[in-house]
Amino acid sequence: MGETQEELLLEIEETKVTMNMAMLLKGLLRPVLYLLLTIPAILPFAAPVMAIESPDRLVVVVNEQQLRQVHLDRVMNELLPMASFHGGVTVELKAENQDKAIERLIENELLYQEGVRLGLKPDAMAVKDAFRESVKRVGGKKRLNEALVLYGISEDEFSRMLKAPMVTSKVVEQEVDKKAKVAEEDIMAYYEANLESHFNVLKRRFRHIVLKTDPGDPQSWGGVEEKASEILKEINGGADFEEMARSFSEGPRKEKGGDTGDIDRSQILPELSRAGWAMKQGEVSGIIKTIYGFHMLKLEEILPLEAVPFEQAKVQIERFMLIAQKQKLKQALLESLRSKADIEVFID
Q: Is the pLDDT of residue 113 over 50?
């Protein structure tokens, strides 16, 4: 059986220092503890953002629930995780993202409160694991409780912070994910409406000559390029491309006169694709350099558009439409919650 909230709070209480002791140590410990609180993933309410404002500063009130700077810093870390990891967030970067962070903070709180209203509860074992992980990462229960006291975070608030993301996830799962559905006819309608622009493949057939280079011997490339230039000169002078491919190409289709068969852009190197799809039928390219060697192409045929079969496109379309529908449902839910909420922001 999972621990009750009382048992969880008792774990915190067991090693909690008194407020008087915390205030006595404040001058020495505050910089150290805020550093601990600002290491990525140390605590559920901590964030590795630059400590510019006091963590006690009131940021926003959502239906009488006060959210402070320490809550905002946590959200800021979600928005700027890599910047935080690589040396902290600058004043300028933090200011640029403050409005977005406040909006997300409000949305998270609205979703949590809705979860409480719906009677959704986090898994007790998951809460217990989150608490133990916080204790482990911060360096023990004593140091955790010193931090809680120093930053004015009550036992109930800390417990709430542990549970809130789990409850919020349950709300999204119940009210968004499980309600998002895409009908077969809607998938087909999307496919038909976007067939020409999204689900047609343009294929071409080329002949290809390649003279390979040795990546380990760049000095030899000049000689290979010179030989490629001579071959191209002969082709432009009237030599048959197919025969030149049979005689000189070092590619796998040498015996077929360099015939690539019908291919789409994804089937050849990007450098060849860019050149080949800019050519006109019957045209011969210049020399194209890649890491594999020096190439020449002749565009033999531009094939008619080939439609991707519906069954092949169906999974991709359904995934796309589900994502769009979930976004729409979540936005509608947030707008509904916001319209009934009493929200006051205290910072610009």
A: yes
Helices within 151-199 (DSSP H only): 155-175, 184-193, 195-198
Flag the least confident range among 18-27, 218-227, 295-304, 319-328. Answer: 18-27
Q: Are strands 343-345 and 288-290 parallel, antiparallel or unpaired?
A: unpaired
Looking at the domain that runs over 200-307, which CATH code has it been given?
3.10.50.40
Percent helix, strand and coil across the chain, each rounded to 5?
60, 15, 30
**Whose CA is closest to 296, among 200, 224, 229?**
229
Containing H/E element for 26?
Answer: helix 19-37
Structure tokens at 150: 């120093």
Residue 2: which H helix or E strand, with range? none
Taking only the tens place, the pLDDT of each residue in 13-72 is 443 333 333 333 333 334 334 333 433 333 444 444 444 467 778 999 999 999 998 888
Cα–Cα distances in angstroms (integers) from residue 301 to residues 188, 197, 260, 262, 279, in the given order? 32, 22, 11, 9, 11
Mean pLDDT, the chain, rounded, equals 82
Instruction: Write out the H or E segment, with its range, that includes residue 116.
Output: helix 91-117
- CATH 1.10.4030.10 residue window(s) in the chain: 5-175
pTM: 0.59
* Domain 5-175 -> CATH class: mainly alpha
Given pLDDT bands bounded at 50, 70 and 90, which one contains residue 95?
A: confident
C-alpha 48/C-alpha 31 separation (Å) is 14
